[in-house]
Amino acid sequence: MEGFFQNYLRLYRSLITSLNELMSNYHLSYSLWQVMYYIKNYGPSTLVDISNYYNVEKPTITRRVHRLEELQIVVQIPGKDRREKIIQLTELGEQIYKECRLEIINLEKNVMEGISKEDQHITYLTLPKIQHNIMKREGNKIE
């Protein structure tokens, strides 16, 4: 299916732009939201956990976490040893997460308008398969 990736990348960029606009009211970006999303769904986590999940370098996650700390959305809590940094959402972070999540749900509904539930489900199942094939091809660990 020639042109699939071009269409996907155009969609991705548009979606990220929409998400960034939606979150700008909270002084957030989609990249910061990713950290919040991970912590909310997987519980207090280390920087390594988050960077492995998103397949990005630890310094990238460190910068994101520092920005979220400045916004008082996350806080570091003591880990098993002094070097381990465990990050969790603050009360403010929990509230902002809930508000953003509602706005994202509305965005998802709007962008999926006119697309059958069956097509949505097929896409939902297909995208992780593509990611799996990319990760396998690149020799990265697959979760």
Automatic annotation (TrEMBL):
GO biological process, one term: response to stress
Transcription regulation listed as a keyword: yes
InterPro entries documented for this protein: HTH_MarR-typ, MarR/SlyA-like, WH-like_DNA-bd_sf, WH_DNA-bd_sf
PROSITE patterns documented for this protein: HTH_MARR_2 (PS50995)
Domain (HTH marR-type): residue spans on this chain: 1-132
Signal peptide interval: none
Keywords: DNA-binding, Transcription, Transcription regulation
GO molecular function per UniProt: DNA binding; DNA-binding transcription factor activity
Domain of life where this protein originates: Bacteria
Keyword Metal-binding recorded: no
PANTHER family the record matches: TRANSCRIPTIONAL REGULATOR SLYA, TRANSCRIPTIONAL REGULATOR, MARR FAMILY
Protein name: MarR family transcriptional regulator
Organism of derivation: Ureibacillus endophyticus
